[in-house]
TrEMBL record:
This is Bicarbonate transport ATP-binding protein CmpD. Pfam families: ABC_tran (PF00005). Residues 261-282 are annotated as: Disordered. It is found in: Cell membrane. The keyword Nucleotide-binding applies. Its main location: membrane. It is a peripheral membrane protein. It comes from Stieleria bergensis.
C-alpha cells in the first residue's frame, strides 16, 4: 500500500569522467503521515543523494518520489530542508532569516501575521529573546535553531534533515534533539533524517532504515522502534530492547563493511592479474 510519502524504485546515476556511476538503485520506502524515519548507512553510500532528490534539489534518474499525492519534480515549500550548516544570511536578524521563507509561503498574510508566525517558531526553538540578533552574532547551536524554525515556519508536508546536529557539541545536540521532537509531535510533520549516530537514530525515530553500501545502494533493512512517545531519554536507554536493536544496527553496518572490503580486495586482485597478464604479453 502506498504511504503518505512513497519512494518507488528510486535511482540515481551520476555522470563521471569514468562513465555513468549508478549510486542508488531500486530504493523503495513508504512513510506514514507524521512518521519519523532515520536513514543510516556508511559514508558515501548515497544517503544525501536520496534526501536531495526528495528535496527536489537533485534530479531523479529513475523511479520517483510522491509526497502527499504530489510527485516531486523540483524544490518547493511543501518540503522543509535543514542541512548540517543552516546557511543563514549573516547580516540579517534571526527573525528576518525566518521571514524570508514565511513571506514566500504566506504572500497574502499581513506583515504582522507573517511576523507572528516567524516569531512563534523562533520562540518554540528557544530563541524568543533573540529575534533581533544578527545571524552572524549567534552561536552555531543558535544558528541551527534558526534553521529549524525556518523549516517549520513553512508548515511543510515533509521535513528533510541532513545531519542537522552533526556540527554541534554533544550537549547542544541532545538539547536540540529534544526541541525538535517536541515541535514534531505538536505539528505531526513527516520527517526523513540522515544521521551517522546510531543512538540518535534510536532516540529520534519511529523507523530506522539501513542503506546498503554503494554502488547501487538500496534499503537493506528496516528496524521499527518500540519506544513510546513522548520520549524520555533515560526511559529509552533503559528499554529492554534498546541494546539489542543497537547491536543489530551496528552488526548490519559491520557486515556492509566486510562486504566492501571483500569487493575491494577482489577488484585489486583482478587489476593485478590483468596487469601481470599485460606484462607477460609484452
Ligand atoms: N554530483 C555528483 N557527481 C558524481 N558523483 C557524486 C555526485 N554527488 C555525489 N556523488 C557520489 O555519490 C556517492 C554518494 O554520495 P552521497 O553524498 O549521497 O553519500 P552519503 O551517504 O550522503 O555520504 P556521507 O555520509 O559521507 O555524507 C559518493 O560516492 C559521491 O562521491
Amino acid at each position: 500500500m502506498a504511504g503518505y510519502v512513497e519512494f518507488y524504485r528510486l535511482g540515481k546515476t551520476y555522470d563521471t569522467p569514468n562513465g555513468p556511476a549508478v549510486i542508488v538503485e531500486d530504493f523503495n520506502l513508504n512513510m506514514d503521515k507524521g512518521e519519523y524515519v532515520c536513514l543510516l548507512g556508511h559514508s558515501g553510500c548515497g544517503k544525501s543523494t536520496v534526501l536531495t532528490m526528495a528535496a527536489g534539489l537533485n534530479p531523479i534518474s529513475h523511479g520517483g518520489i510522491v509526497v502527499a499525492n504530489h510527485e516531486i519534480d523540483g524544490p518547493g515549500p511543501d518540503r522543509g530542508v535543514v542541512f548540517q550548516s543552516p546557511c543563514l544570511m549573516p547580516w540579517m536578524t534571526a527573525l528576518e532569516n525566518v521571514l524570508l521563507g514565511v513571506n514566500q509561503v504566506y504572500p497574502h498574510g499581513t506583515k504582522s501575521q507573517r511576523h507572528d508566525i516567524a516569531a512563534y517558531y523562533l520562540t518554540l526553538v528557544g530563541l524568543g529573546n533573540s529575534l533581533d540578533v544578527r545571524a552572524s552574532s549567534l552561536s552555531q547551536g543558535m544558528q541551527q535553531r534558526v534553521g529549524i524554525a525556518r523549516a517549520f515556519a513553512l508548515k511543510p508536508n515533509m521535513l528533510l534533515l541532513d545531519e542537522p546536529f552533526g556540527m554541534l557539541d554533544s550537549l547542544t545536540r541532545m538539547e536540540l534533539q529534544e526541541v525538535l521532537l517536541e515541535i514534531l509531535i505538536r505539528d505531526k510533520v513527516t520527517t526523513l533524517m540522515i544521521t551517522h549516530d546510531v543512538d540518535e537514530a534510536l532516540f529520534m525515530s519511529d523507523k530506522v532504515v539501513m542503506m546498503t553500501n554503494g554502488p547501487r545502494a538500496r534499503v537493506g533493512k528496516v528496524f521499527e522502534m518500540p519506544f513510546e512517545r513522548p520520549r524520555v531519554r533515560s526511559e529509552v536507554l533503559e528499554h529492554p530492547e534498546y541494546y539489542k536493536l543497537r547491536g543489530d544496527m551496528i552488526s548490519f553496518l559491520e557486515e556492509q563493511d566486510h562486504k566492501k572490503m571483500k569487493q575491494d580486495a577482489e577488484k585489486l586482485q583482478q587489476k593485478q592479474a590483468e596487469e601481470s597478464q599485460q606484462a607477460v604479453s609484452v
